[in-house]
Specification:
Order of helices and strands: HHHHEEHHEEEEEHE
Strand order of the largest sheet: 3-8-4-5-6-7
CATH architecture of the largest domain: Alpha-Beta Complex
Number of helices: 7
CATH topology of the largest domain: endopeptidase fold (from Nostoc punctiforme)
Oligomer: single chain
Largest sheet: 6 strands, antiparallel
CATH superfamily of the largest domain: endopeptidase domain like (from Nostoc punctiforme)
Shape: globular
Structural class: alpha+beta
Helix content: 25-40%
Number of strands: 8
Length: 193
């Protein structure tokens, strides 16, 4: 889809042109999620805050740039791409392969697959559909309350009880959803694919 910042800014600009309260700053944050939800609701679309093919076409007046839209293909791409960054160090506020924080990492990997998520873990917890732990599939987002009330950490579910995340102690690494620490901090999951 081209540069993440400019694509997001273009979407934000179109929302602003239509009268929604959002700035075209290239950062898909909470204000953009709310504007997208209002736009979707006004058109009778599923108001999930994600700019998928239907929302993109309705908003931009053209088809979404070609990205494989089948669930399996996108999920495989996300899982495969996520593994490319194992060992990248944790950097608070990091959003690139030079260093990631948890939500910056998830946002970067999903953007590479053409899915634009909000910047922070708590905002990412507001998009998509809730999924129970027993119904997790690869590519779902898993959320944890690690240092603050609510969603303060996010990772990508890989299957078989494992997820990949950028943690402050190990950088990008694979962990078990059922380990003592992560199991006790788990608060829920969202499906955005």
């Amino acid at each position: 889809m081209g540069d993440q910042g400019s694509e997001v800014a273009e979407i934000q600009g179109q929302l602003a042109n239509l009268g929604y309260d959002v700035s075209a700053d290239g950062d898909f944050g909470p204000a953009t999620v709310e504007a997208v939800k209002m736009f979707q609701s006004n058109l009778g679309l599923d108001a999930d805050g994600l700019v998928g093919p239907s929302t993109y076409t309705a908003l931009m007046g053209r088809e979404m740039p070609q990205v494989s839209r089948s669930f399996n293909s996108i999920s495989r791409r996300i899982i495969s791409d996520s593994m490319n960054y194992i060992g990248v160090p944790y950097v608070f506020g990091g959003t690139s392969p030079g260093g990631f924080d948890c939500s910056g990492y998830v946002r970067y990997v999903f953007a590479n697959a053409g899915i634009y998520l909000p910047r922070t873990a708590d905002a990412q917890y507001e998009v998509g559909m809730p999924v129970s732990r027993g119904e997790l599939i690869p590519g779902d987002l898993v959320f944890f309350s690690t240092y603050d009330y609510g969603a303060s950490h996010v990772g990508i579910y890989l299957g078989d009880g494992s997820f990949i995340n950028a943690s402050s102690s190990r950088g990008v690494a694979v962990d078990s959803l059922y380990s003592g620490y992560w199991g006790s901090c788990y608060i829920g999951a969202r499906r955005v694919i």
